[in-house]
Design a protein that fits this description.
Blueprint (H helix, E strand, L loop, with lengths): L6 E3 L5 E4 L5 E4 L6 E3 L10 H13 L2
Antiparallel strand pairs: 1-4, 2-3
Length: 61
């Protein structure tokens, strides 16, 4: 299990790291890569839930 702030070395090389569904990072044999889990990431919304709530608001007006 990963813990917040714990560095993890990426040892599988070459490889590709998916960052956010659109961007990727290619890792070559010569690269040293360390990943750290933080809480500083962008917020993510559940778009289906947000649309359902908005739909409910418009039904009541």
């Amino acid at each position: 299990m990963l813990h917040l702030g714990e560095p993890v070395e990426i040892e599988t090389k070459p490889s590709i790291i998916a960052l956010d569904g659109e961007r990727t990072l290619e890792v070559f044999k010569r690269d040293d890569v360390v990943a750290v889990v933080t809480r500083n990431a962008p917020r993510v919304i559940n778009y289906r839930k947000a649309l359902d709530r908005a739909r409910a608001l418009f039904r009541n007006t």
